[in-house]
Design a protein that fits this description.
Blueprint lengths: L8 H11 L14 H8 L7 H11 L3 H6 L4 H19 L5 H17 L3 H17 L3 H13 L9 H13 L3 H14 L5 H20 L3 H15 L5 H17 L3 H15 L5 H17 L3 H13 L7 H17 L3 H14 L4 H17 L3 H15 L6 H14 L3 H14 L8
Helix pairs in contact: 1-2, 5-6, 5-7, 6-7, 7-8, 7-9, 8-9, 9-10, 9-11, 10-11, 11-12, 11-13, 12-13, 13-14, 13-15, 14-15, 15-16, 15-17, 16-17, 17-18, 17-19, 18-19, 19-20, 20-21
């Protein structure tokens, strides 16, 4: 941050505000309304400590910087520590993430106490996004919702915050709030220039995920249609990848396996030319999942191996859980019940706060227990899977087929009839398209 040597506090606030394209009303707060800010900028009033803390927070700088125009050695040290933690979180898949989060919390408390609100804001973003990636959705929602509500982030500058928050809301069974979040993001960006067009496609795909999670498949398709129209005019590989990812996922949601695999193949072809290993891993897992659902075990195993070959490209808890679950299904259907139950249990633990996803992990556990000959325990796992999955009804018919097949093989026909009657009365087999 460069500034004239003679710059005073008011001039410094004005320069920073104009550099960020913000009005005096946009940086006001407790102890610093827009009229007060105007007078301080003109040198007609002295900036109090409360005034400086409010304006510094809203400008994303430290109080020390507003007051003196230079970052002190302590502020420099803190920012350097934060840079190191952020790089480690993003690049080192083997790092102890809980230790790094503890470091972030300590840095956050220190920054707030010293009025270094730029660092405090970055710490909160990293804490929230890291929690979402680890599957700690309650923590992620708490941290990230505050950032959004306080206006400390924007869809264009901090898209990752909105993606992580939306994903955590959906995992907590609050898909409607996830939809509302991404609708607000879309409303704030218009595809009038390249930067906004890329953002428009990005948030359209996120919105399509949220709509699919809430069962609004028709609206999800309409959103994707609009995104495609914009993406066709954007010469950006990742923009096209996002549309293919979303269309593959939507087809998977609708049990449209052929289109799901076709769009996934297009996404994979583009991703292999980029360095985005995380999305590539997710596409291979999606193709493996489709293979399982249509009974093509060899194809599912081949795609799973491609995902595993990417190693630790993703540290996302949900990706890890999906990989464990698919591996558990493959093991169970190959007759290795011990491996299947171990892998499924790991997936269940990773998905502690995501009930529908845990349902499919319990389904894998049930098949593993069947392979081990532990039929009573398997039937309890099938029941748990049904109760968790029936919340959003996705893949319930496939689950019921496996459950009923197990009961039929055990000659427990009365239980089959009871389950069919229960699911019909509950409407668990009703279509999700709206």
């Amino acid at each position: 941050m460069g500034q004239p040597e003679s710059e005073n506090v008011g001039a410094r606030i004005r320069r920073l505000r104009l550099e960020q394209g913000r009005s005096q009303r946009e940086i006001e707060g407790p102890g610093a309304d827009h009229a007060h800010i105007s007078r301080v900028e003109r040198g007609e009033r002295t900036a109090t400590e409360a005034f400086l803390r409010t304006v510094a927070r809203n400008l994303g700088v430290s109080v020390a910087y507003l007051r003196h125009g230079e970052t002190g050695s302590e502020a420099d040290r803190r920012r350097a520590r934060l840079d190191d933690v952020e790089l480690t979180l993003r690049l080192d898949a083997h790092a102890d993430r809980l230790t790094l989060v503890d470091e972030l919390r300590a840095l956050h408390a220190e920054a707030v106490a010293d009025g270094d609100f730029g660092v405090a804001r970055r710490c909160r973003i990293l804490i929230g996004c890291s929690a979402s990636e680890r599957g700690e959705h309650v923590t992620a929602e708490r941290e990230l919702s505050r950032l959004v509500a306080d206006g400390q982030v924007s869809p264009l500058a901090e898209a990752e915050v909105y993606l992580c928050l939306g994903r955590s809301l959906a995992a907590l069974g609050r898909a409607d709030e996830s939809v509302a979040l991404f609708e607000a993001c879309l409303a704030s960006v218009q595809p009038s220039n390249r930067g906004d067009s890329v953002a428009f496609v990005r948030f359209s795909t996120y919105l399509s995920y949220a709509l699919a999670d809430s069962g609004e498949l028709r609206r999800a398709k309409e959103v994707l249609k609009s995104a495609l129209a914009v993406a066709d005019g954007v010469d950006d590989t990742m923009t096209r990848v996002r549309v293919y990812l979303s269309r593959a996922r939507l087809a998977w949601t609708e049990c449209d396996w052929d289109h799901g695999r076709a769009y996934a193949a297009r996404a994979i072809a583009l991703l292999e030319a980029t360095e985005d290993a995380q999305d590539l891993l997710r596409m291979h897992l999606l193709v493996a999942d489709i293979g399982l659902l249509v009974g093509e075990l060899d194809a599912a195993e081949a795609s799973l191996e491609k995902a595993k070959c990417l190693g630790d490209a993703s540290v996302d808890a949900q990706d890890m859980a999906t990989s464990r679950r698919i591996e558990a299904f493959v093991a169970a259907r190959r007759g290795d019940g011990d491996a299947a139950t171990t892998l499924a249990s790991e997936a269940i633990e990773l998905l502690a706060e995501d009930e529908p996803a845990r349902g499919r992990a319990y389904w894998a556990l049930a098949e593993g227990l069947v392979a081990r000959g532990e039929h009573d325990e398997a039937l309890l796992a099938f029941r748990t899977a049904y109760e968790l999955m029936s919340v959003e009804k996705r893949f319930v018919p496939q689950l019921l087929h496996a459950w009923v097949s197990t009961l039929t093989a055990l000659d427990r026909h009365e239980e089959v009839s009871a389950i069919v009657l229960e699911t019909l009365e509950a409407g668990a087999l009703a279509p999700t398209v709206s």
